[in-house]
Amino acid sequence: MRRQLIDWYRVRHPEIPATLSNTPLREESTQALAALNSDILTPIENQFGSITITFGFTSNTLKNYLLKHHPGQMAPSLDQHAASERNVKGNVICKRQGAACDFRVEGYEDKMDEVAKLIITQLPFDRLYFYGKDRPMHVSIGPENSRFVQIMKPSDSGHAVPTKRAIGTDSLKLFE
Questions:
Q1: φ, ψ for residue 12 (rounded to 5)?
Q2: Confidence of residue 71 (pLDDT cuts 50, 70, 90)
Q3: How far lies 32's CA from each of 15, 40, 79, 138, in Å?
């Protein structure tokens, strides 16, 4: 499995204590992260080049830290970053399960729409959230493999809000 999927927060949030663990505890999470790497990230890297993970796997411990210190950056019950991990009550954090990451591709920092089109036409994904040609994109795998694409735009307050959406190859029209 790609270490960046686990250690991504060390770059984005260097203030997080080194003692905080972001290790998957459930075998299903480890398997989903390995599938995300082999089925999505490796083919993208082979086609376009080096990938930087900007938001990756988020254990329950890291989720709680981020919600306390950086609220508004995530939607744990929806975004699949927690994979199949469980909260302290034993409930799955995200019922969609699977795994997700946000990433950008070196050399395509202003052309992430080209990367999105490859995902849509050639790769098995569950959800893709597209924030703009010059922004990292969110992609997930999961049991549903819904092939759902959501275009996100910044609101006046700076938060991303959903706009147009489509499923499967129909979503290519969203990029015209």
A1: -70, -35
A2: confident
A3: 28, 11, 14, 15
Q: Which pLDDT band, with edges at 50, 70 and 90, does 8 fall under?
A: very high
pLDDT at 34: 97
CB atoms within 10 A of CB 68: 8
| Cα separation, 155 vs 118, whole angstroms | 27
Query: How far is it, in rounded angstroms, from Cα 8 to Cα 53?
Result: 6
30-66 core/surface letters (b: 16 or more CB in 10 A; e: else):
bebbebbbeebbeebbeebeebebbbbbbbbbbbebb
For the beta carbon of residue 148, count every other beta carbon within 10 angstroms: 17
Give pTM, 2 decimals: 0.94
